[in-house]
Design brief:
By secondary structure, this protein is α/β, with parallel strands linked by helices. It has one domain: NAD(P)-binding Rossmann-like Domain (Rossmann fold). Helix content is about 40%, strand content about 25%. The strands form two sheets. The protein has a nine-stranded mixed β-sheet, with helices on both faces. Strands 7-9 form a two-stranded parallel sheet. Helix 3 crosses helix 5. The radius of gyration is 16 Å and the shape is globular. It starts with a strand and ends with a helix. About 45% of the residues are buried. Bound molecules: NADP nicotinamide-adenine-dinucleotide phosphate. The site of NADP nicotinamide-adenine-dinucleotide phosphate (NAP) has 25 residues, from helix 1, helix 3, helix 5 and strand 7. InterPro entries: NAD(P)-bd_dom (IPR016040), NAD(P)-bd_dom_sf (IPR036291). It holds the Pfam family NAD_binding_10. This is NAD(P)H-binding protein.
Amino acid sequence: MSRIVVIGAAGGVGTRLVGELIARGDDVTAVHRRPEQAGQLRTLGAEPVLLDVADEVRSGSLDGFVQILPGADAVVYAAGASSAPIDVARLVDGDGVAVAARAAEAAGVDRFLLISAFPDAWRGKGMPAAFEEYMGIKKAADVALVATGLDWVIVRPGTLTNRSRTGRVALGPAIAYGDVSRADVAAVLAELVHRTEVSRQVLELTEGTALITDAVDAVARL
Ligand SMILES: NC(=O)c1ccc[n+]([C@@H]2O[C@H](COP(=O)([O-])OP(=O)(O)OC[C@H]3O[C@@H](n4cnc5c(N)ncnc54)[C@H](OP(=O)(O)O)[C@@H]3O)[C@@H](O)[C@H]2O)c1
């Protein structure tokens, strides 16, 4: 059993990840933004912790994270604020990652998984400037995490869907762009968090044909 801290635990991927980890017997600390989300996370079997990442960044302190992280085996950063104003997204998807990574280093938690974004997402579709800015924020967060001494893994899923879990994906450092269900993203993260031989890799993820365990075995050999 491992103790995993999931930041953004009440989200579409986050909730499914909490379920995957609990099913594996992990002890899950579920960091969420709104008080009314605690009940659902507790019902899943996690320990909910209320923490607004944007407030934590604005405070300039690591205290909120540092209270949660000691003793954890890994952190998964699944928070995102794509539908919020871009300044809030910058705090949650951008600076929040760097702050959480610094807090992990301060707390002695080495393993840190980040859900980023697929670089080819919606390219050529005439997306608004705010979308390009959001993608830039996601990339800058990747850059900040890669610059740390942590045992990081960055997962860049294609466009997320709410389709059901298939247990099969495409996963690799450079793959063709496509969709992937939040359920399969959660299942891949739950596998990767325990597979410490996969370290300091940026991995793109879409739906595909490989069993998740085989797909992770393959990237572990890279
Ligand atoms: N949509 C796509 O096609 C796509 C593609 C690739 C990557 N991604 C990335 O995948 C990640 C997860 O996506 P998702 O569908 O699971 O998103 P989601 O359902 O919106 O979940 C994100 C979670 O982050 C939480 N959050 C937002 N602001 C926060 C704050 N200030 N403090 C703490 N938590 C906060 C949200 O809280 P609330 O529930 O309270 O809002 C939500 O629970 C995101 O980082 C997104 O950028 C998305």
